[in-house]
Amino acid sequence: MDKHIKHKYLSTKTFGHDLGISCAFRQWRAVHSHCSKIHGYALSFHFVFEAEQLDERNWVMDFGGFKALKDKVLELFDHKLVVAEDDPMLSEFKKLDGLGMADVVVLPAVGCEMFAHYVFEMAQDVLQVELERGRVKLKSVEVREHGANSASYLGNEL
Question: What are the phi and psi torsion angles at 12 (to 5°)?
Fold first, then answer.
């Protein structure tokens, strides 16, 4: 290969709908939509990594090295009721948590766009060692509710 040409390699990792990451939430600000009601999906998460050079194995990322990230995603979203910290019914949701009727996770905001942002930041923390070597960049995270609805968060495009 010509060493003067910049190459870009992409690899992806998906925690798919088949994992059954069951998450319920509501968008309380959507007052004229059914999305203001508690509803849920088996979410999926799709990560895109980029590198200009492959490692000694000719890989962008080691697909076997995602256990810690998967565990964090499951901890935050699997069988959880995710509620925005400014939800006017937050105290009621916390009561459900206290009664053992729901595992409530409070985040600054809800929705696939924000979930993608949170998971992007979380992935950078969890995969810090690999990413800090400077060879690999986390390019984006996509969160899917189902086959028709998804949202992505892109890292800084410098």
Answer: -130, 155
What does each C-alpha distance from 52 to 58, 120, 153 come to in angstroms?
A: 11, 20, 21
pLDDT at 99 over 60: yes
Is 2 inside any structural domain? no
**Domain containing residue 130: CATH number:** 3.30.479.10
Look at residue 71 and tell me if it is in a domain.
yes
Q: The pTM is what?
A: 0.90
Q: What is the full DSSP assignment across 30-89?
A: -TTSGGGS-EEEEEEEEEEEEESS--TTS-SS-GGG-HHHHHHHHHHHTTEEEEETT-TT
Q: What is the dihedral of CA 145, 148, 149, 153, to 10 degrees?
A: 100
Q: Domain span at residue 32?
A: 9-154
Q: Would you say how long the chain is, in residues?
A: 158
Task: Classify residue 126: in a domain, yes or no.
Answer: yes
